[in-house]
Amino acid sequence: MRIESDLKLDFKDVLVRPKRSTLTTRSDVDISREFRFRHSGTQYHGIPIIAANMDATGTFEMARVLDSYQLSTALHKHYSVEACVEFFRALERPSAAFYSMGIARADEEKFRRVMEATVGSPEPVIRYVCIDVANGYTESFTRFVHRIREAWPHLVIMAGNVVTGEMTEELILSGADIVKVGIGPGSVCTTRKMTGVGYPQLSAIIECADAAHGLEGHICADGGCATPGDVAKAFGGGADFVMLGGMFAGHEECAGETVERDGQRFRRFYGMSSKAAMEKYAGGVATYRAAEGKEVLVPSRGPVAGTVQEILGGVRSACTYVGARRLRELSKRTTFIRVTQQLNEVFGKG
Fold first, then answer.
1. Annotated catalytic residue, options 189, 208, 220, 254
2. Where are the alpha helices (DSSP H) in 10-138?
3. Mind listing the pLDDT tens digit for each residue in 219-254?
4. Is there a contact between 74 and 100 (Cβ–Cβ < 8 Å)?
5. How confident is the model at residue 300 (pLDDT cuts 50, 70, 90)?
6. How far apart, in whole angstroms, are the C-alpha atoms of residue 223 and residue 60?
7. Is the pLDDT of residue 277 over 90?
8. How many angstroms separate the CA atoms of 167 and 179, rounded?
């Protein structure tokens, strides 16, 4: 046993220090990014925000709407082969929609069937893949990433989740273009409560970004963002992409049961390791494990377009406060200051 006493920070622990700027309006800020990925060589251009591959938010409907704003979606892994084939065949080629899968034999076989059914075009239909497990520290996971890389060299592979620099490097060297960062910070995740395992998300982003960028890799900050300001802090900390679940939940484009309580409409939203998810997709919680997610009711929020505007507007505004004309300049111009309070809540939260 050992204890690390170095300071580790979360989004709530910091604010971004403003700096002099020559920008006169938020409309001057370019919040798109261009990347060339290490292994696939694919050139990406878009706004690097991704809807999480949860069954509520990682829907075909969400992908179609977010694509119109140059945002991406990681589809949930429970669509049928036929539905996936139909969706990807109809997708515009520049779209960065991620096919998602786990590392079980059935996941790999399903992916092979989807890939075989979508060949024959002048270029591959599926170009982005999210290999997603709760614990990215196992040898079986790194071997799986390596196997997928060897089988389909053209793919942009996003793999995770991890929270430390050495495992970020391991995954990139195993074939990942993007490493997904975050253990326990999600709004409906209870991993930290159930296992005691985790890492403050902002520090994880900073450390993993440093490790990835040294190898010409990229990271995706997954979890912990509750406000547009948190998204800006994630980018300021070095994240190349930011993945959002709870912030996109409750919209018309989401899946999930609608519930009415006292005249107000809600949508069910749950973690993918929750009892609700495992009962739906695995026949219940296995006897060797415990649920590591919870179920909540999210007020129905209408079309996702309004939330997208809030998020993008907040990030643009953050850039103007530090003089970043482009999103790629934000991390270079960010100075975090530690705080004990984020907001004046004399009139309540919000």
1. 189
2. 60-67, 81-90, 105-117
3. 999 999 999 999 999 999 999 999 999 999 999 999
4. yes
5. very high
6. 21
7. no
8. 9
User: In the prediction, which pLDDT does 120 show?
Assistant: 61
Is 189 an active-site residue? Answer: yes
For tokens 């060589």, the residue is 41
Phi-psi region of 42 (alpha: psi -120 to 50; beta: other; left: phi over 0): beta
Q: From residue 318, give the alpha-carbon distance in Å to each of 85, 188, 255, 315, 348.
A: 39, 27, 31, 5, 24
Q: Letter for the amino acid at 223?
A: G
Residue with tokens 């990682």: 58
How would you class 221 by CB atoms within 10 Å of its CB: exposed for 0-12, middle for 13-18, buried for 19 or more? buried
**Nearest-angstrom CA–CA distance, 123 and 119:** 8
Is pTM beyond 0.85 here? yes
Residue 26 backbone zone (phi > 0: left; psi -120 to 50: alpha; other: beta): alpha
